[in-house]
Amino acid sequence: MSDKDSLVRLLDLDPEFIIDIKYATDNNFTKQRVYNFNDCYLNKDTAILLIKAKKIFKKDGYKVKVWDAYRPIRAQKLLFEIVPIDDFVATPPDMRKPIIFEYSHMNGLSVDITLVDSNGNELEMPTEFDDFTEMAGLGCDKIPPQARKNAEYLKSVMESVGFKAYRNEWWHFNDVVTKATPYSDVEFN
Ligand SMILES: C[C@@H](N)C(=O)N[C@H](C)C(=O)O
Ligand SMILES: [Zn+2]
């Protein structure tokens, strides 16, 4: 199976997501376009889990907005060159060495998301996307109550279907159910 075959386009499985891929624009912390595909690709099983979560959010009146999903190894390297802090940007792999693959954006097992209400407004959350400060972690005691409540709701639903929240970034979730596949460098478009 090629890399491309193990990744699916989320909207082909379910059109009810809002796709706002920040790294396909220059509106992200790098101030440049990181990759060309303005679309959400995920491991198929991860996409199925996300659709499960979406159904719960939908019942509660919310939509899921996806900021990032699959990202090529090349893109991970670029992000890390700009912010080389492993707590916020995962260290890219050295592909010349043997690697134990884990859940990652580089195999489409991680997603960066937020929630949107019925008026199309993003829910108040602890920070903006990719705010690499302590405020982005749910352990921070300075988060306003409503933002904390929203982020904890997001986390509880995502964890109920098999994702694991990432302690440093309220928006980042790893699929810890699906067997991790090799990282990929494929580009779409
Ligand atoms: C860069 C940020 N959006 C993110 O996804 N961070 C995690 C740790 C990652 O790079 O995998
Ligand atoms: Zn992420």
Automatic annotation (TrEMBL):
Active-site positions on this chain: E169
One Pfam family recorded for the sequence: Peptidase_M15
Catalytic activity of the protein: D-alanyl-D-alanine + H2O = 2 D-alanine
Site (Transition state stabilizer): R71
GO molecular function annotations of the record: D-Ala-D-Ala dipeptidase activity
Top EC group: hydrolase
Parts forming coiled coils: none
InterPro entries: A_A_dipeptidase, Zn_M74/Hedgehog-like
CDD domains from the UniProt entry: D-Ala-D-Ala_dipeptidase_Aad (cd14840)
Reported cofactor(s): Zn(2+)
EC number: 3.4.13.22
Residues involved in Zn(2+) binding: H105, D112, H172
Purpose of the protein: Catalyzes hydrolysis of the D-alanyl-D-alanine dipeptide.
Family: Belongs to the peptidase M15D family.
Protein's name in the database: D-alanyl-D-alanine dipeptidase
UniProt source species: Sedimentibacter acidaminivorans
